[in-house]
Amino acid sequence: MTGRNFFLPQMNRAASATEQASPSARIRSNGTAGASDVLADRAAHLYNQVPFGLATTVVIGALATYELWDARFKELVLIWWCLVLLVTAASTGLYLAYRRAANIAVDAERWLRWLGIGALANGVNWGLAAAVFFRAHTHEEQVFLSLLLVGVTAGGIPVFAASWRIFAIFAASIVAPFTYVLTTLGSRLFTEIAFILPVFYAGSVAVAYRLNQVLISGYRLRRAYQTLTEDYTALNRTLEEQIEEFRHAQSVIEASGRKLALFAERAPIAVFELDRKGTILDMNPAAEHTFGYSSSELVGRNLVQTLIPQDEPALDKRWWADFAARKHPEAGIRARCLRRDGLEIVCEYSLTPLVNEFNDLTSVIAQSRDITQQQEAERLKKEFTSTLSHELRTPLTSIIGSLQLINSGMFGNLDREVAELTGVAERNAQRLLDLINDILDIERIESGGFSLQPEEIALDELIRESLVLNRAFAERFGVRIALRTEPPRVFVHVDRKRLLQVMTNLISNAAKFSPEGGQVELSASCADTRVVVSVEDRGPGIPEEFRGRIFSRFAQADSALTRKKGGTGLGLAICKRLIEMMGGEISFADRDGGGTSFSFALPARAEPAAAPL
User: Residue 598: which domain range?
Assistant: First the structure.
């Protein structure tokens, strides 16, 4: 939200260099392409003049044939006229081929070369007429022929103006034979005209050259204008797209702003907008309700100085100055606050600094939540846990001990009905004690008051010990416990008592949910630097809808079998937390053929570490 470019698509900011460069830069970068385009324009101009040139050649050639027709030279005149028609036909074929060509711009130089050859052939025809017919005709016909040749030469200037070289070839093929003929006739006048013809030729070539340069400049300007037009069209199109994207981004920002304003206004927690010094700029209705001040009373006042007691160390002026310098978000800050009515409450703050593109702190969004009742609930929970520990577990242990003495026959044999009742009482008292112990364990783990006493133990020995300890419990459900494979001799650095508790929970769960006559199998294997222990059963498996919360507290699948087997729903949650505290991880998977396999992995050691001195 610090700049418009955040909302513009990357494709517009990473456009090609040709589209983003200035028009003059594009013209310079396209120099080679521009030269070929100009050459193609020159070729097009010259070929556009071909029909006019051919028509003029046929008309003038027919007129010359008529004027030069003589019984003495009619064969030569006829041959010359055939040559004129032949060259005209070849030039017409070249013109038609040019019009049918697909890629003229690429082959422009070749087309100009062929046109030069055609112009040379046409000029040679007129030069041949001067060489053959000028010497053998009368003065009137010579004057006519001279004017005709000069006119044809001068007429080539506009026809071949787009290429002065082609004109120079065309004019030279006419002037050179004519000059030679005039020089060899022996007449003074013709000799003087012969000296004037090269000057006329040079002047005509100069004019053609100048016209050629003017046309080339015009072609370049036209190409440049086309390039500029394309550039500005592309720029306008890009600008329109960016304006449209900017409008869309602006509408998105406005919608987001409205959503944020609505969210802040209707949020159930207090929300403040502060400046870098902690001065309140804005606040929502929940803040008014939490602290008892109206927005007009708090806006413009410092939050730390107004709402935080001076002896509160968690949120004071020094801490705020450090926070404004760090410009990092802070969460979970608990501090005492004073309401307008003088009541002291405890609030939890989350502070989010907003910085601009220059990394300057512009404002701070402070979210405050009243946790006074939450703290009171935590205090009550601790008192309840203490009551469970001291007021319930101690007498319950005494009850279980007394019932065990009675059921052991120490005070004599009991009647069968009395023995059944005392047995039921002992089992339910033990079940209640297990529930209390599980609740105490999970609360101590989650509150951080639970500590482990790790040591180096042989995992294979602990697996065999857990098998022996839980065999009697499994036999109550008609289930056997056995080792599927011989466990490897590896050592782990764990709390022996707590790992044995994990094994007991997993084995007892597997025994309870195994079918009568079934078998619970234990196995262990090494993978890299970890050892994996598995407890597998052949029970009904875990329902799909229950898998996501199987390791949660008080989590039990809702089924008749679960209610029949009983349990607190805390065993797997305790197992997960204990294994993670010992640096491992626990998981479960369906077993082939039915049943479930629970596994946990722990870091393995090749041999026990030396005892510290």
Answer: 455-603
